[in-house]
Specification:
Elements: E1 4-7, E2 20-24, H1 29-40, E3 45-49, H2 59-69, E4 73-76, H3 90-110, E5 115-119, H4 148-168, E6 172-177, E7 179-181, H5 194-208, E8 212-216, E9 222-227, H6 228-241, E10 248-250, E11 255-257, H7 258-269, E12 274-278, H8 293-299, H9 307-338
Length: about 350
């Protein structure tokens, strides 16, 4: 059937042997890493629905997916996110996120799925919550106005998960990842987030011989960054070991200012020019770092990759991709010229 990928595996351990797993968003950035973790744990049948054949905001498409895949486990990683600049698709993003999650959870409970993992967003936290951001404070105010619709849409999933656990005994685990990054990230200048955006700026500045780079914002905001491989490991550990109803933060637990982050990326890329800041660009929440003690306590997760290691990996990957793209472009032009 078109629109589905089924992955075979060569497992090293057998945690999920014999389990059929559906991973929405499995072809995405985080999803690809999560699938690798599932394979390592013995899963031999992973179904990845593709939007071209399964629109997960439509009930009929979700029913077709469940009838075909007959999953024991469901990982809901798919999401739509409005552009970080302009927020032009905020209504579409809100609608799709709410409809996908609401209907997937309903279908999963009806079809007897053993456990569902649902990923939220750190943008759901109230704008004035105490730091570090603790799961118990998730509903003590509205999210930052710049991300309010997205934050509320993702927050609703936990309300639904608690209701379904109470009425149906349905096990849905709600995870709240911080900003994750790494090789394979989105580097589209129109839609990428802070780490890929900065890497792109500094790499291009080196290539163009620029002696200054302008970065939007004041640089004073702080964030918590988690390598995507660590994030995927946390998702797999939660699926493997945790069935509770409490929300769980996923992060590194290390707070870094955007000023410092930019300097680190400049060093990793070899950029030695000036860094200028454009304060007319909004910073978003002043601080955002998650309290990660619950994840360690409940299923033994602790981030392994340091930020400097992760940045170096990501820069190397991005440069390799650029080099390959440039080589392919040159070959295409040469072929066209010869013909």
């Amino acid at each position: 059937m078109t629109g589905i990928e089924i992955a075979a595996c060569s497992p090293r351990r057998q945690t999920f042997a014999g389990k059929r797993i559906v991973v929405t968003g499995g072809a995405g950035f985080l999803g690809r890493y999560v699938i690798d973790k599932l394979k390592e744990r013995g899963c031999r049948e992973i179904t990845v629905p593709r939007r071209s054949s399964f629109d997960l905001s439509r009930w009929d498409d979700i029913e077709r997916l469940f009838e075909y895949a007959r999953p024991h486990l469901l990982l809901h990683l798919a999401a739509t996110v409005d552009s970080p600049v302009g927020h032009r698709n905020v209504a579409t993003s809100f609608y799709n996120n709410v409809m996908m999650t609401t209907q997937l959870m309903e279908a999963a409970s009806r079809h007897g799925v053993e456990k569902m993992i649902c990923t939220g967003s750190a943008s759901s936290y109230p704008s004035h919550a105490p730091f570090p951001l603790s799961e118990q404070d998730l509903f003590k105010g509205l999210p930052d106005a710049s991300r309010e619709a997205h934050g509320i849409a993702k927050r609703l999933a936990w309300i639904q998960a608690r209701a379904y656990r109470q009425q149906y005994g349905f096990r849905c685990v709600f995870l709240i990842p911080t900003n994750f990054y790494g090789p394979g990230d989105n580097f589209d200048p129109k839609t990428c987030y802070v780490i890929p955006s900065l890497i792109r700026k500094f790499v291009e500045a080196n290539e163009n011989g620029s002696d200054e780079v302008v970065i939007g914002g004041s640089g004073c905001a702080t964030r918590d960054f988690l390598h995507v491989d660590d994030c995927a490991e946390a998702v797999a550990l939660a699926l493997e070991r945790y069935s509770g109803g409490d929300a769980i933060n996923l992060g590194s637990g290390v707070e870094i200012g955007i000023h410092d982050l930019a300097r680190k990326i400049a060093r990793v890329t070899g950029y030695n020019g000036r860094i200028l800041w454009d304060p007319t660009y909004p910073d978003g929440p002043t601080r955002r770092v998650l309290d990660v003690t619950r994840a360690q306590k409940e299923f033994g997760f602790k981030a392994v990759k340091t930020l400097l290691e992760g940045l170096a990996e990501t820069v190397d990957w991005y440069r390799a991709v650029r080099a390959t793209a440039e080589s392919n472009s040159a070959q295409t032009k040469a072929f066209a010229k010869g013909n």
